[in-house]
Amino acid sequence: MRHLKILVFLLAGTLMLNAQKAETPDFSYELGGKIDAMTLTSSGILLITHNKGLAGIKPGSGELVFNFDDYGKVKQEEIYVVPNTPYVMVGQAGFAGISAKQSVIDVISGKRLFDTKANGWKAASRPTLILPENKLIVSGQRNAKEKYAQAVGIYDMGTGNEVKVFKLKGYDVLTGVPSIVNGGLLVPAGKGLSCIDIETGNERWTTKLKNVAFVEASDDNKSIYAFVNKNNGKNQEIYKIGPSGNLLWSEGKKLKGVVSNFEVTPKGLAIVSDVADSGKSGLAKLAAAKAQSNISFLSTSSGDDLWEKAPKTKGYVQHFYIVDDGIVFGLASGGINKISFDGKPLFKKPLKTGENIHTMALTKHGMIYITDSDANIVNLDTGESIWNKPIKYKRAKSVASTYDKAHSRYLISTGTEILSIDENSGDISNFASYKFEEKEYPNSLRVREGGLLLSSDQNLMMLDFDGKEKFHEYFRSPGKSAVGVILMAATAVASTAVAMDAAARAGANQNAFGQYTSQYGADMDRASKMFSAIATASFAEMAKRFSATSATENSQFILTKLNDGVGLVKVSKDSGTVEKEIVLKNKKPTYEVDELGGYLYYLANNNTVYVYDLKK
Q1: DSSP category for residue 77
Q2: Which of 128, 115, 124 is nearest to 70 (CA)?
Q3: How far apart are CA 372 and CA 494, in angstroms?
Q4: CA distance 149 to 238
Q5: Ordered mean pLDDT values, 10 residues apiece, the chain (616 residues)
Q6: Residue 511 φ/ψ, nearest 5 degrees
Q7: Which of 131, 167, 204, 471 could form a disulfide with 195 if both were Cys (CB 3.0 to 4.6 A apart)?
Q8: What helix, strand, coil percent values describe the chain, rounded to 5?
Q9: Mapping DSSP to helix (H, G, I), strand (E, B) and coil, where does residue 561 land?
């Protein structure tokens, strides 16, 4: 995954460089109001909040793509940039929070697709976006003409047109996340769970299940599983509901904690539920449930527990994978175990590991795992190491790893050295030792055509494929006494999961379990295909953006001290040479770099943004 955020530091130190100067911007934008924050979205549009409203800058365009001044001052907490979509949601509360104003903007087209007042709502909670259907679900109170009725509305995000508005009976209100399954809108409300036919608007069925948090479709996409909050949301129960709204299980299955992962397998339902820390102390804490994940395996036909004894976790589940003969899971606090679908341990004993498992992936010899302090390849049938003992290394602030396909090896950067694991023999060797300036550790290790690239905020190093240093370039940070100003972090561009509240999180498997490869290209390709599947011009533009090679894939941008002040240097990843300097002339610069599109956005003054084309 590639992240667009670049850290900013204050002025200090000196550095002499000879490179092209680029103080004159390629584009300049006057916002007409004091700029409060800049946010680079995954669509490439720079979102700007100012004291009169919201504006958007499109890469390579000399005009603002939009500038809405009817919001007034928008607080940063009132904005939600929907990950990996062209949408931004704005929610503003009126007097005493009674009259909530909600709107949704397509930042690529510059169109406001939904607005509470324009669409006949007095107040609404934050809408729910459903993909790939590209529908917006809104719940709240209609306007005076409709007697302030509680309702749920569906809107087509391709056009902004209203699909349907359904009135809720009595004073019913939404209690959970709505969803669409098999042409029906599932509405979890205070008086029960209802399914409404989207085409006709007719109610298909209603159950008496109250406090439904979210639902998940079964493997046949006809029946559903409903997750009901209990004990003020600290625990949940799961029910199975048939196509006509009938309960298919005799009773709900009680779960300890809140569901964080849910998988429908041919053998049953695999569920992870997390119990939070009670916050209590003394005897009360001893009596409270332990803060940890619980794993359950239920019958799809009856809801009965298929395991006589659930595996002990003693921590939170960080990785959770379904394999052919069972379930493999890893804990954030360290430890990996495997259990069969009938509840039998498949490892002789749980595998001990270091904390924070970065990687779990299949190799020719077994499963490789990498943590903050150790790595190993284990036999997935027995859980035993293929070596006498795991690789141990001093815990660093940053551990990076990659797969070198051409040389059939896994490489792990531990902070001071690179360890090499031969994919075919499993042999381990010390590939190279290194030291970064300013006590930095590499936060990235990449395989490039000319060698292996290690990088951090101020250091860039290339090693050849034998581990010999080709270059090491260091650019002193402008200042270490304080951290510079960044108004808003950018959105990570290569994340392909659209995390849309608890329902999406519960249905998503955490991290792909498969052959370990360099993730950047694969993630970008998956994102492009996901965007292409949604038939709107804005998603088509996002697909084009993500399918193209990153404009700055061959360069790294580092903030440092230049001859004329603090500035950004563009450094070649293949040679280490400085290709461009951009002097920002500001001791506390605020900027964002769009690595995909190849643009630098710089806050020149209170109401002006400069844009530099980094591809030149």
Answers
A1: G
A2: 115
A3: 23
A4: 30
A5: 27 30 80 90 93 90 90 89 93 60 94 95 90 91 91 93 87 86 90 88 89 90 92 92 93 93 92 79 46 93 91 90 92 93 90 90 84 88 81 78 91 90 82 93 93 96 97 85 28 27 36 44 67 85 81 87 87 94 83 88 91 88
A6: 75, 135
A7: 204
A8: 10, 45, 50
A9: strand
